[in-house]
Design goal:
The chain is α/β, with parallel strands linked by helices. The protein has a single domain, classed as Metallo-beta-lactamase, Chain A (4-Layer Sandwich). It has ten helices and 14 strands.
Length: 311
Amino acid sequence: MRVFNFKVALVIFSCFVGGVLSADSGSPYLFVLGVAQDAGYPQTGCYEEHCLPGWQDARRRRGAVSLGLIDPAANKKYIFDATPDFPAQLYALEVEAPSERYELNGIFLTHAHIGHYTGLMFLGHEAMGASGVPVYAMPRMKEYLAGNGPWSQLVNYKNITLKALQNEKTEELGSLRVTPFLVPHRDEYSETVGYRIDGPDKSAVFIPDINKWTDWQTELSELVKTVDYALIDATFFADGELPGRDMSKIPHPFVVESMETLAALPVAERNKVWFIHLNHTNPLLNTQSEESKLVREKGFNIAVEGIRLGL
C-alpha cells in the first residue's frame, strides 16, 4: 500500500483549507497535528505489506490523533489529546505558533486510552520538567491521573495542574469556548468525551473515539448541521479490515456506516465532515486509494497533518 506523505499534505492542504494561511492572520484556528489511531502508523509489531513503507521511510509515518488550537489575538495555544507522539507534535505546534509569542495554555484530554493521554509523560521530571501546564480532564480522568503513577508524579511535582471539566459545561477561553460532551466508548479508566469548539465565527466538533452511532442518543446528521467542521472517528473503513477478528467486538463506526448515516445530507453539509483517527489498516491513509477517492466523491474529507480550520 502506498502511504500518504506528510510533507506533500502540508503543501497541498495548508494553503487553502478553512481560509487561514497562518497564525499571522489574527483569527483562531484548529491545526491538525496527528490523524492515526492510538498506536500510530506503522503500528508496533506490524510487518505486513501495508505497514512496511512506514518502517522503511520515516517520512511516511503518521502520529496519533491530536489537534492544536491557536488563538493569535490572545497569544495562546492549546492541544487536544497528549499522544505517544507528543514530542514531535509539540514541535509541529511550536513551528506553527512559537513559544516566544504563544503560551501553551492547556491540554484537553478525551479519555484514558494510550493514544490520548500517555504523552503527558514527556512533561515530567525525566523529560521537559514543565511547570504547571493546565490539563483539562473529566472527573474520572482527573481522579485517575491524580491517583495513579506515573501520572500522579506530574501532579506532585507540579509539572501539570489538573483542571476539572464537567459534561456539557463550557470552558470560556477568551474568544474561544470549549465544551466537553460524553460519548459511549470503552471506559475502563475514565469516561470518554468529544469536544465542541466555538470560535468567533465558526465551530467544530471533535470525536476521535466513539462506539457505533446507534449507541449514542445524539443524531449524527443533526449534530453535523450545527457546526462548520465535524472531525469524527474513522478508525476502520469497513468490516473485514482485520482478518481473523470479529470486528463487532471493536464497535467503532465504520467509515462506510458514517457515510451511509449522512448520505441524505446536502453536499455542503457532508463537506463539513473530516474523517480522523485512522487505524494502520485503514486504506484512507493512502489518499490515492480507491476508498479515499470514494470518500471524496461522496463529498466528505479525510484529515491530514497540517490542515488549518478557521474558527
